[in-house]
Amino acid sequence: MNNHNGNDRTEFVFSGFGGQGVMFVGQLLAYAAMDAGFNVTWIPSYGPEMRGGTAHCTTIVSRKPIGSPMSPRPHVAVVLNLPSFTRYEPLVREGGLLVVNSALVSLTSHRQDMRTLDIPATTIAENLGSVRAANMVLLGAALTAQPALPLAAAHSALEAHLPPQHRSLLALNHAALDAGAAVVLERL
Amino acid sequence: MVKELLKGNVAIAEAAVRAGCRAYFGYPITPQTELLEYLSSRMIALGRVFLQAESEVAAINMVYGAACTGARVMTSSSSPGFSLMQEGLSYIAASDLPCVVVDVMRGGPGLGNILPSQGDYFQVTRSAGHGDYHPIVLAPATVQEAIDMTVLAFDLADHYRHLVILALDGLIGQMMEPAELPEWQADPPTPDWAVTGAAHRAPNRITSMHLRADESEAYNQHIQRRLEHIRAAEQRSIEMYTDDAELLVIGFGSAGRIAASAVEMAREDGLNVGLFRPQTLYPFPSDRLAELAEQVGACLVVEMNAGQMLDDVRLAVSGRAPVEFFGRMGGAIPLPEEILDTIEMLCWSLHVVE
Amino acid sequence: MIPAAELERVYERPESLTALHTNYCPGCTHGVAHRLVAEALDELELREQTILVAPVGCAVFAYEYFNLDGCEAAHGRAPAMATGIKRLLPDRTVLTYQGDGDLASIGIAEIIHAAARGEPITTIFVNNAIYGMTGGQMAPTSLPNQRTTSSPSGRDVALTGQPLRVSEMLATLPGAAYIVRRSLHDPANIRKAKKAILTAIQVQQRGLGFSMVELLSTCPTNWGMTPAEALTWVKDHMLSIYPLGDYKVSDAARELSA
Questions:
Q1: DSSP letter (8 states) at residue C47
Q2: Dist CA B179 CA A40 (whole Å)
Q3: Is the separation of the CB atoms in A27 and B176 below 8 Å?
Q4: Chains A and B touch (3+ CB pairs under 8 A)
Q5: What is the DSSP string of A165-183?
Q6: Contacts of A68 in chain B (CB under 8 A)
Q7: Which overall architecture, per CATH, does domain A9-187 show?
Q8: C-alpha pair distances (Å), A174 with each of A25, A31, A165, A179
Q9: Which residue of chain B has the CA closest to A50?
Q10: Burial class of residue A106, CB neighbours in 10 A (0-12, 13-18, 19+)
Q11: Domain B4-186+208-233, what architecture?
C-alpha cells in the first residue's frame, strides 16, 4: 500500500479560543501558499469535529490539486489553548508535528511517534508588544520545524494581506514570526 | 485577472455582481449567510438593490417581482429556507422568468444542522415546487467552479427564460480557495416581455395561470419542449481516468471532489478506477454516463445523502453495469480513505467474478 | 333626434380598463373598485407608468381587466412581488389589489413588512369578510356569528378570535403614510373611496411611504343575499366592526388630501 499523498501535501490545523487569531493565522498560511504557487484550501470550524468554545480551521497546502479539504489526521496541529491540546494531540498523524502554546497549556505530549514543540507563544508575544501575536509566533515555529513553505512566504503574505485596519500591527507580526522561528532554531 | 483567496459564499456573491445581478433579496440562514452579508454593502455601494426580506417566502416573491422587470436577480438560502421558497419557484418557472437561486445545502431533514450535506438533490432537481418542470441545476465542486457557474447560471437563465439553481453544500460555501473572479458583464437590454409600464405598446402581463385544460396542457408542452432543448444542449460533467476504468466512481460537488482523492489513491495502488463528476444535476449528464457504463464493470455512487443522485445514475446506466452506493448523511463528510475501502472491495469482487 | 352638437359624453370606459367582461358575480363591488382605480390612474395620467400586481382570489384576473402592465402573484405575496418591482423601477407606480383572504390571512406577514418598510407602493384592499373564490369560507375578517361554509353555525369568536382590523393595525407602523377605510355600499361612499384612491396613489408618487385604501365590499353570492341586501348588510353589520375613517395620514400626506 502506498503512503497516499506522501510529501506532496501538508495538512495544518490551527485551534484555540475565539480571539486568539486562529482563523487569521490559517488564512495567512493559505495566502502564503497561494502566492508561492501551491494549491491550497482553508476551511473554518465546520465539520464533524466542531465543538463549542474553541475555534479552529484547517489549511491544506499541496503540490497536487486538493480533493478532500478535510483533515481528520493533520500533519501539523497548532494548539493555542488546553481544549485544543486535548482535542488534537491524539489526532496528529504519525511522524507529524504538534506545536503547543505552552504559556497557556500546562500539559505536554508523551507521544513518541511525532514531534512536539512547546513554545510559550503568549509570553513571547507579550514581550514583543501584544499577546495577540501569539498565533504568528506559533506559525513561525511550525514553518521552521516543518518547512512546507519558506518562512519568507509568510512574511510576504503579511505584507500583502494583513487587513488595512491591522496595518499598525505589521511590524509586531513580522517580529512574532521571526521570534517563533528563532525558538525552534535555538533548540536544533 | 489574478487569483485571490476567496470564500465560496463570497465568491458567488461577487461573481453575481460582475455578471450583472441588479437585485438580491434574501434571508439569513447558515451556512450561506456570508453571501447575503457581502451583498448588503456591495450592492448598495453600486447603486443596485439589496433587501433583507422578512422570510424566504417573501424573498422569493420579491425575486419574482424583480424578475418581471427583466433584470438579472438572485436570492440564496440553505435547505430549510429553500423548502420555504418552493411555491415561489414554481410560479417563477411557470411564468418563463429567468432568475438564479443559490442553495447552500445543510444537514437535514428538519432543522437538522448547519453542516455540509447534499440532501436537497431531490428537492432541487425533481421540480423545486409543484407541477411538471425542472430547474436547471448546477453543482460546483470548487470555489472557482462556483464562480464560473454563477456567471453561467445568469446566462442560462436569460437564454432559456428559465429558473437556474446553483446547488452546493456548506463545505464549498465556507471554504476558501484561490480563484479568479470573472470580467464585468454589460447589462443586457430590457427584454420585450418585461413589465415596465405599458407606454406605446400593448400591456405586458406575466402570469402562471392557465384555467382551461387545453391552454394549460399547451403551456406544459411548451415547458417540456424547452426542457428537451436543455437536456440536449446543457449536460455537463468532468472525468478523470475514465479511459481504462473498470470501476467508475460517480459523485457531484463536495462528494465528487472527495471521491477524486479516493480515485487518486486507488490509482496509486494500481487499481483501474475512474471518476465521473456531474456538473449539471439537471439536465443530468446521462448521455455520457450511458456511454461510460458500456465500458466499465461497475459504478460506485458517492453522495452526502442517502442516495438521491443514485436514481439518476441508475436511469442513465439502465442495467448496463451494476450500481453500488456509498453515502454519509446528516452533515457527516465522507473521508477519501473510507471511499477507497469501498473501491478496493468492489475492484476485488469484480476480479473474483471474472 | 338630438342634434350632435348638443350631445355630451358623460360616461365612458376608463382607458385604464380593458373591454373584457369580468367574471364577477352580479352585485359584487369588485367592478366598482376596478373602475375607481382605473379612473384615478386616468386622471393622474399614470396608465403607461403603472404596474398592477393581482392577487389570488376573485380578482385573480385583475391583470386582464386593467389595461396596464400587470402580473399575477402567489396567494398573499402581492406586497412582496410589488416590492421587487418597485425596487427595480422606483419611478413607476406599483399597485397591489388584494382581497381579505389574500391580504389579511395568508399574506399578513407580507403586507405588514411592506408597510413597515414604508415601501412606496399602493394597496387596494377589498374586504368582503369572506373567501369568495373558494366558495364562501370564513376569513380572518368574517364577522362574529357570520355563517360561512367553514363556520356553518356562525363564526364562534371563542374558537376563532375576533375579526382582524388590518387598517387599524397597519396604522401603527411609522412606514405607513396613508391608511384609510372606505366603503362601496352607496354612491356618496363610492365618491369618497375614489378620492382616497387618488390620494393613495399620489402618496406613492411623492415617495411618502406605504399607502392603502381598504374598501368594504359585498359578496352577495357567498353571503346568500341579493345585491341590494348585500349593500344594506355592509351598512348595517360591517360598518360597526370596521368603522370608516382615516387611520393614518402622515403630515406630508395630509397636504395632498387637503
A1: G
A2: 10
A3: yes
A4: yes
A5: GGGGGHHHHHHHHHHHHHH
A6: 257-258, 261, 333, 335-336
A7: 3-Layer(aba) Sandwich (3.40)
A8: 13, 15, 16, 9
A9: B115
A10: exposed
A11: 3-Layer(aba) Sandwich (3.40)
Closest-CA residue in chain A for B113?
A47
Alpha-carbon Rg for chain B, nearest whole angstrom, is: 21
Give CB contacts under 8 A, 24+ apart, made by A102-110.
Answer: A103/A134, A104/A80, A105/A79, A105/A81, A106/A82, A107/A82
CB pairs under 8 A between A and B: 76
- CATH 3.40.50.920 residue ranges of chain B are 238-353
Q: Which pTM does this prediction carry?
A: 0.95
Cα–Cα distance, A75 to B28 (Å, whole number):
36
CATH no. of B238-353: 3.40.50.920
pLDDT tens for the 354 residues of chain B, in order: 589 999 999 999 999 999 999 999 999 999 999 999 999 999 999 999 999 999 999 999 999 999 999 999 999 999 999 999 999 999 999 999 999 999 999 999 999 999 999 999 999 999 789 999 999 999 999 999 999 999 999 999 999 999 999 999 999 999 999 999 999 999 889 999 999 999 999 999 999 999 999 999 999 999 999 999 999 999 999 999 999 999 999 999 999 999 999 999 999 999 999 999 999 999 999 999 999 999 999 999 999 999 999 999 999 999 999 999 999 999 999 999 999 999 999 999 988 655
Beta-strand relationship, B298-303 and B273-278: unpaired
Give chain C positions within 8 Å (CB) of B196: 51, 69, 89, 92
Cell numbers found for residue B130: 409543484
A2 in contact with B, Cβ within 8 Å = yes
Grid cell, residue C138, equals 370564513
Q: Are C137 and C246 in contact (CB under 8 A)?
A: no
Q: Please, which residues bridge with residue A12 across strands?
A: A59, A76
8 A C-beta contact, residue B283 and residue B307: no
CATH homologous superfamily of C20-257: Thiamin diphosphate (ThDP)-binding fold, Pyr/PP domains (3.40.50.970)
Alpha helices (H) in chain B, listed in sequence order: 8-18, 33-45, 56-68, 79-84, 86-93, 121-126, 143-160, 170-174, 213-233, 253-268, 286-295, 309-317, 336-353
For chain B, say whether A1 makes contact (Cβ under 8 Å): yes
